[in-house]
Amino acid sequence: MFVIGAILIVLAIIVVIYVTFATRSLEALTIDWGPFTAALTPLQLFFLGAVTILVLAIGAVMFSIGLKSQGAKRAEVKQLRKDVKAKQADTSGANSDSSKRADDAPDSPADASRSGRDDARDQTTSSSSTDGSPTQGAATSEPSASTSPRSTLPPPVPPRDNTPPPRTNRP
Question: Looking at the whole model, is its pTM more than 0.85?
Answer without folding.
Answer: no
